[in-house]
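Bumping with the actual sequence this time:
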Amino acid sequence: MKFLFDLFPLLLFFVALKVWDIYVATAVAIAASLLQLAMFWVKHRRFETMHLVTGALIVVFGGATLILQDEMFIKWKPSVLNWLFGAAFLGSQFIGEKNLAQRMMGASIDVPGPIWMRINLAWAIFFTAVGFANLYVVYNFDTDTWASFKVFGITGLTVGFVILQAFYLARHIKDDDSEQEGG
């Protein structure tokens, strides 16, 4: 259910684009993002960082799209968002005792420190590459193709990356039972 809640501004954007145009879709995405923030606040009395960052970017880039009547701003938003995520993962390698990947998954998965560094760096590279892939689609395909890539392509790439990461992590998870039996 959380997955759908996180994606509902994106899905509404896609539907509005198919029914109307990019400008109506952008306005719908802005409204949906603000509604998402409000609903999360009402339920949890806090905000999620991802919702805040995404909401701020959609307001800024979407607002520029609407005010200047230039769809390139909204098309650049996924790249900027992914690059910010990539920079956050990369920067976390150097700040604090745990990197971002370990902070997010470390409570449920126990792997050696070097594995956390590799996973964290892989996420930084992944997000950076997805940002460039978005721009490739922006500049080489029409708006409908870009929207499909944004909704289904980026989501599919992310799910695929998570699955590959899970297989990699599974090979390195510390098994407390086997360590106790062998000791």
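The tokens above came from a reply further down the thread. The radius of gyration is 19 Å.
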